[in-house]
Each structure stands twice: as C-alpha cells, then as structure tokens.
Amino acid sequence: MEKIIEDPEFRSVEREKYVKWVDSVLQSHRGSTVKELRICFSLVKSAGKSITKWLEFAFERHTEKLELNLSEGDCLHNPNELYAFPQELCSNISSDHPYKSSGLFGCVLLEDVPMLTRVNVTSVETSSMYVERLIPTLLCCLSQLEILTFDTCCKRELLSMLKFPMMPKLKKLVIIEALHGVDSSLLGLSHFISASPNLREFEIQQRWSTRAERSNNEIQKGLKHFPLHQHLNVIRFLGYYGCPSDVELVNYLLENCVTLKEIIVDTQNPRRMAYEPLDSEELKLAEIAKVYAKLQLEPLVPKHISLFLC
Q1: Backbone Cα Rg of the chain
Q2: Which segments constitute the At1g61320/AtMIF1 LRR domain (predicted)?
C-alpha cells in the first residue's frame, strides 16, 4: 500500500488490475444472497462505472454488510477525483427492496443494508462543494439512521456548514476530528446534536498532534438551544487536550442536555492503534492533558453526573 500511495504510475496500474479482479470475482458469483462484501482499495471516479456495478451487485443480493473503502490510507484524494455515491441507487430502488444508502467520500461502511441503520462517513472535507453533494446523498437514509460516525478533515470554523436535517432515530453519534496547531471552537458540532433529538450517546474523537497548542480564547457560555436535549445521557471525549475549545464543548453539552448521566474523558490520542507502542512524547502530553482535564472539568461537572478521567 505504501508504494501505491507514493508512486502514481504504479498506483494507476494496480488500480486497473484491482478493478478487473473485482469485476471478475463478482461476475463469477452464482449465489442469490451475499452475507458480507468488503472492497478496500485506493480508487477514484475513473473507476466509477465498475464501483457502481459493485454497489448494484450488493443491493441486488441483499448484502447484509457492505464496506466500500476507497481511501488512500491517511492521505486524501484530490476532491476532483472523488467517486460520489449515485443518488439514483436510493431513488430508483423499488419498494419491494427498500435499500438505503449513504454518501461516499473516501470510505463508507454500510451495515444492515436492506434497512440501513448505521453509516460511517470518513475523509469528509467541509467545503461548499462537499456539502452540496453530501447532504442530498445522505437524505435517503437519515430518517432511519440509529448510528452515525462522521470523520471530518476540515477547518473547525467550517463545521457549521454541515447543517443536517432532523435525524429522529439517531441514538449514537461519533465525530472524529483533528487538532493541529492552535485550537479553535468546536461549537459547530452543535448542529449535529440539535438535529438528533433522540440521541443517547455522543462521542468525539479528537486526534491531536504534538504540534497542538492551547489558545487563550475565552469560553462561550449560556448557549442554550431550545428545546433542551431530553435523552442524551452519555458523553465520551477521546483525545481531550485541555484546550478552551474542549471545555467549551463540554460546557455546552452540560447546559443543553438535561438527562446527562456520565462523561468519560480520555486524554490518550485516539489516532494510535491499540497494537502500536506508546510514543514517549505523546504519553507525556496525554498526562499533561489529564492534569488540565482534572482542573477544568471537576469544578464544572455537577455532582449528580459521573465524571471519569482516563
């Protein structure tokens, strides 16, 4: 995979070989159903016809779990090369086969495809072009989603562009974002939360780098969105760094979630895989962040809400 990422000519050749191989495998399949289909390779819209055929194959065979990962590791495709999930796969499917689908930007994980309740959307760059394509593509499944994982790679000040329509059945929301350089507000995420009136769990995974800096920004308070959230009772903040923006987001949730029961805060960088050894510098920064978390959150969180610092 490393050579595919670094060598454009080799990548082009391997892409063509991979597409032909998948085409051949699916054409040879004779079964009427598929339990799981997983396709993971760095592909762009030049392979669009084949990718769409793969999706049609999955839908026609009532695939229970479909993972289509077209990303290039931690790198991003050129926006002009991205394959966008065809909306006609939502609108043209008959009522006898009520499949639902999601936008495709880098990687999408679809589970329980016939009655989709869970979607992972990763490598999303928030720009006007992306938003114009992403929101309409997701419309066909937002009303029934129960779990949504959203991995952004945008500037925080652009988060407010992602104003989702109501997601009445959403019970768990996971936001993955990055902290590089000086922090800025995370309150743009409030649109996700206010669009999910029945949300039970909210998790933010903040991937910080060793270049992250804590700003001197003032924390905004008193930002209540009515009606207040009546069901959110668990918050997980992974990668808490002790920035004013971190405290501001927790304070916003405390002010707007009336049934909150517990807040779980982990200062370890969630970017690290479980099998990777701990980096000494990151370990030191995580310990410093834990001190900040203790000083910032213990006085802030009411006694009736359990606060767990990891």
Answers
A1: 21
A2: 131-305
For the chain, the residue count is: 310
According to the model, what pLDDT value does residue 274 have?
A: 52
For the chain, the average pLDDT equals 78
Question: Any idea which of 27-31, 34-38, 89-93, 240-244 has the lowest mean pLDDT?
Answer: 89-93
pTM score, whole prediction:
0.73
For the cut 70, the answer to whether the pLDDT of residue 288 exceeds it is yes
Instruction: Give the pairing type, strands 65-69 and 118-124.
Output: unpaired
Sequence-separated contacts (24+) of 267-272 with Cβ below 8 Å: 267/239, 267/240, 267/241, 267/242, 267/293, 267/309, 267/310, 268/238, 268/239, 268/310, 269/207, 269/208, 269/239, 270/176, 270/205, 270/206, 270/207, 270/238, 270/239, 271/207, 271/208, 271/239
DSSP conformational letter for 50: H
How many other C-beta atoms can be found within 10 angstroms of the C-beta atom of residue 43? 24
